Amino acid sequence: MSALEILVDVVRSGFVEGHHRGSVVALTAAGEVDWSMGDPHVVIYPRSCNKPLQATGMVRCGLELDGELLALAGASHSGEPFHLEGVRRILASAGLDESALQTPPDYPLDEDARAAMIRAGVARSSIAMNCSGKHAAMLATCVLNGWPIESYPSPDHPLQKAIAETFAELTGESVASVGVDGCGAPLLSASLVGLARAFRALVLASAGTPERRVADAYVAAPDFASGSRRDEAALLRAIPGAIGKAGAEACYAVALPDGRAVALKVEDGGPRARPVVMAAALRRLGVDQEPGVDSDAVNATGVAPVLGGGVPVGELRPTF
């Protein structure tokens, strides 16, 4: 932990009042470490950054989804109406309904969708929880393979064992720790280098492979992989061919279509610093100046104002 570096300064009225520390690594198109800050080999729980890799494991097990529904299988969705309808479509394809989900009841991540549910007197539900697309896909994979559905979140379940094998292969690392994620599914550890390596493997995979199918789904349907008003989706819309996934506790990984990749972790888990660090890392790689990239949109994802009296009086400023 002593190797962590200050990645972001919190600036208010010209005064630096705080910092966000962490680690970030960038890989070249050839898969070598280009540059890093902090400790790129520190083992972390990437949280929902693991979802594209989990989705790849499910496709390897025969999951018959593509496009927006496969993106939803690898999403931390916002709980907008089209997300919930998509989750129901995944479940229906397996002859199931939302009662089979074992995600903890929650409100949507999206503020508007959450407010609409509360105004309508709708209680928290398993389908509104942001991981319900992943869980629905897990259930569909179990039905397809004849595996029990009651125990699908167990680390000892055949599905979870298959996902762990895929995860280790793509990261190039053995799984050092298995925890329980916020949604109740197994959570697999990796280093930032391993996480970036895995995302790189998805974008460079051959057409028709499970890896490429997941990457294509993210590229084609970023709103399903995230939410229509989320910074992740805005970044993917701005960089043609890129894939990316954020996770709780301020984790984030992005892979570019040529194989370059970035992975980061902010130590304190502050979500406000996560997109700031990623935007700075992509600028350092020169991505915002490349042909076809919406430079303004990329940079906008990294803008995090500090407010005073309800108006911006400062900013979160990257240190690199």
What would you note in describing this structure?
With about 325 residues, the chain is of the alpha+beta class. The chain has one domain (about 5-320): Beta-lactamase (3-Layer(aba) Sandwich). The protein contains 12 helices and 12 strands. The chain has helices at about 50-60, 65-75, 80-95, 110-120, 130-145, 160-170, 190-205, 210-220, 220-225, 230-240, 275-285, 295-300, and strands at about 5-10, 15-25, 35, 45, 180, 185-190, 190, 245, 250-255, 260-265, 305-310, 310-320. Strands 1, 2, 3, 8, 9, 10, 11 and 12 form an 8-stranded antiparallel β-sheet that branches. Strands 4-7 form a two-stranded antiparallel ribbon. The chain has a two-stranded antiparallel sheet with strand order 5-6. The mean pLDDT is about 95.
